[in-house]
Design goal:
mainly alpha; Cytochrome Bc1 Complex, Chain D, domain 2; binds heme C; flat; 5 helices
């Protein structure tokens, strides 16, 4: 390689490997977050994908910032149980937020075959 390109190529290599590492770390956080979400029972009220149920509000797709979620979990004033730090660490809450942020939007009814059939019935 021509020596005058070396610093640029080196910089690119460093940049891309950093992006690779953080994407992997994000994937790990999402996976840990899902496990914790299931282990401590968030899913029982909020649904496995955080989209809510009769027992708990939807937490996705509009996800609160980690501090707000942590605050709610620690000091829940309502029907939701309080989770002290011995049960759920701050790091685990950050992982839960990573998981919630990774949940994709629900598809449009028009994009779901069986619902398309229902929509036709209505017309
Ligand atoms: C027993 C049912 C139950 C469980 C278990 C539960 N929640 Fe909740 N959660 C609720 C209900 C109900 C609300 C609505 C506010 C209220 O009534 O207190 C709520 C509200 C919230 C909110 C506030 C949402 C908003 O937009 O204001 C967050 C964030 C939240 N829950 C996260 C969690 C997480 C994370 C877990 C697991 C660590 C969890 N919840 C476990 C029932 C539950």
């Amino acid at each position: 390689m021509n020596i005058k390109y070396f610093p640029g190529v080196l910089l690119l290599w460093i940049l891309f490997s950093a992006v690779g590492v953080s994407a992997q770390e994000d994937a790990n956080a999402v996976e840990r977050g899902l496990k914790t979400f299931m282990r401590v029972g968030c899913y029982e009220c909020h649904g496995t994908d955080g989209k809510g149920s009769e027992a708990g509000t939807a937490l996705t797709p509009e996800t609160l910032p980690p501090e707000a979620i942590a605050n709610f979990i620690r000091f829940s004033p309502g029907r939701m149980p309080v989770y002290p730090v011995e049960v759920l660490s701050d790091e685990e809450i950050i992982d839960i937020v990573a998981y919630l942020e990774s949940v994709p939007l629900s598809p449009d009814a028009d994009d779901v075959d069986i619902l398309k059939a229902l929509a036709l019935d209505k017309k």
